[in-house]
Amino acid sequence: MQPGQGNDEQGEGVSPFLAILGSPAARFLYRRLSQAVVVMLVVVVGSFVLLQFAPGDMVDVLAGEADLTAEQMADLRARYGLDQPWPVQLLAYMGRLASFDLGYSPKLAAPVLDVLLQRMPVTLTLVALSVVISLSVGSFLGVMAARRAGSLLDMTISTATLILYATPGFVVALGLIFFLSVKMRWLPTAGLTTVGADLRGMAWLVDVARHLVMPVLALCTSYMAIYARLCRATMLEITSLDYIRTAWAKGLPERRVIFTHAFRNALLPLVTMAGLQVSALLGGAVVVETLFGLQGMGRTAFDAVMERDVNMLLGVLFVCSFAVVIVNICIDLLYVWLDPRVKVAA
């Protein structure tokens, strides 16, 4: 063995890993993650400061429910640190947050993180199903309308999507409850599972699915219309480009031209809209969760506002903001996979 040969072999073994770490995609990910840390700090500090301007606190709510004396109220404020100046409270909260401690909810008598871990799956399930269904159905309707532009099918889809877009989600929810639950008695009105039913396995899954049908439909109808109209407009623009005409001239099948060459490029604005939908649904599911009696993140935030439970509200804001930041990073990376022409900045 020549001197230095072993070091060369070790260097060759390490170089692929170093190449990955030094790739433009990795540097882009590092930069976005560092930006995410700054964004989360701004969200946490901004949310905390804004909540200080809200009238009253949790002790006032407890006093109204339990008829506490002034001394008892002072003791409670001292116990939970509410008697300290807000900068001191902020520093204490940031210190707990650094150790993944979101605080304690006196109203629910449980750590905030435990409560959110119990209720987060409900909202995440609603959001995931709403995004998948609205994106799939809306894209399909948009492609069908674009393929038959100007036809009766196109006018029917455009009219239906316009009506769905103009109808508020809570109106759709109330209409579904009245028709499918009250009149037809096909679906349960509220809750995630049937009360008192000890179901297991597939029976439990079917029961949960029946409870989620109306909330998911209420959340995804307006976005379904947005995806359909956006996909139609994008497909009409793309199908007029030269490379699509070349594909037709080569005699490629219609299915391949539409879905392989045109639809993949039309996905970019749809993916952008999907990221916005996730952000909107995480923060706007409170109405649907309240109407259908679901204990998710939106309902938890609403209850925290009404009860002045600052720790719980800050925990909901932190978790939802973190989820939105991660989703947007994933959307940016998805651009590169969908369209190789998109390059990440080094």
Can you give keywords for this protein?
346 residues; globular; two-stranded antiparallel ribbon; mainly alpha
Protein topology:
Layout: H1 5-21, H2 24-51, H3 58-66, H4 70-79, H5 86-98, E1 104-105, E2 110-111, H6 112-147, H7 152-166, H8 169-183, H9 201-238, H10 242-249, H11 254-284, H12 286-291, H13 297-307, H14 310-338
Helix pairs in contact: 2-14, 6-7, 6-9, 6-11, 7-9, 8-9, 9-11, 11-14, 13-14
How are strands sequenced across the largest beta sheet? 1-2
Spans of at least 5 consecutive residues whose pLDDT stays below 50 are 1-15
Subunit organisation of the chains = single chain
| CATH structural fold name of the domain at 110-170 and 218-338 | MetI-like fold
Residues in helix, %: over 70%
CATH homologous superfamily (4th level) name of the domain at 110-170 and 218-338? MetI-like
Helix-strand topology string: HHHHHEEHHHHHHHHH
Radius of gyration: 26 Å
- Beta percentage is under 5%
Q: How many strands appear in the DSSP assignment?
A: 2
- Given helix and strand content, the structural type is mainly alpha
CATH class call of the domain at 110-170 and 218-338: Mainly Alpha
The main pleated sheet reads as: 2 strands, antiparallel
Name given to the CATH architecture of the domain at 110-170 and 218-338: Orthogonal Bundle
The span between the termini is: 39 Å
- The number of helical runs is 14
Mean pLDDT: 81
Outline: globular
